Amino acid sequence: MVVTEPRLTLERRLLREHPLLIACDEVGRGALAGPVAVGVVAIDAARSRKRVPQGLRDSKLVPESRRAGVAERAAAWVSVSAVGWASPQEIDEIGIMRALGLAASRGLQQLSAAGFTPEEGIVVLDGNHDYITPVHGDALTVRPVIKADRDCASAAAASVIAKVARDARMIELHDAEPHYNWARNKGYASLDHREAILRHGISAHHRASWSFIGSPTLF
């Protein structure tokens, strides 16, 4: 498989028209347990001229043993980074897409608290659907970009920073509920996770409104 290295082509073009570029990418959308996280990073024109951090890729393409180091280099490369969260209870209450928007909005608020103004820039959002504007408001300029986490270095940085943060959260939760093996499966629907749900039922960290084939009575 040929692994595409992310570039800064789109970022440099957009930064000719905007003073700030913010990239967002989600992690944990398809998990059965745990929060959803949205990584948020910002770069300006000066940052976009710097070398892309070594090993930076979409988080799914970075081996787990290397992700923490890549995330650390990515955080040092961007102007500012944050991770916004939405809990399993919020996902159950408002649905996954609105929960993604809530998590992204919380990440953007962290950028504002750090002295940056997202509304002055442009937001590159991985995917084909703008889930941020319905929650955060239309003062932002949001540009969904399919495969941004693969092709755009800023979105790849947001992806790997969010992935490392969410994996760490799931490892913390594992200690209280070790039978689900979240340290290994990170809350996704692996065979060992689904078998544990069949044996033990769901926990407070599961998305109780979700279901999966083979266990219709659990949720």
Automatic annotation (TrEMBL):
Entry coiled-coil feature ranges: none
Catalytic activity: Endonucleolytic cleavage to 5'-phosphomonoester
InterPro entries, per the entry: RNase_HII (IPR022898), RNase_HII/HIII (IPR001352), RNase_HII/HIII_dom (IPR024567), RNaseH-like_sf (IPR012337), RNaseH_sf (IPR036397)
E.C. numbers: 3.1.26.4
Keyword Endoplasmic reticulum: no
Top-level enzyme category: hydrolase
Protein name: Ribonuclease
Native organism: Microbacterium lacus
Taxonomic lineage of the native organism: Bacteria, Bacillati, Actinomycetota, Actinomycetes, Micrococcales
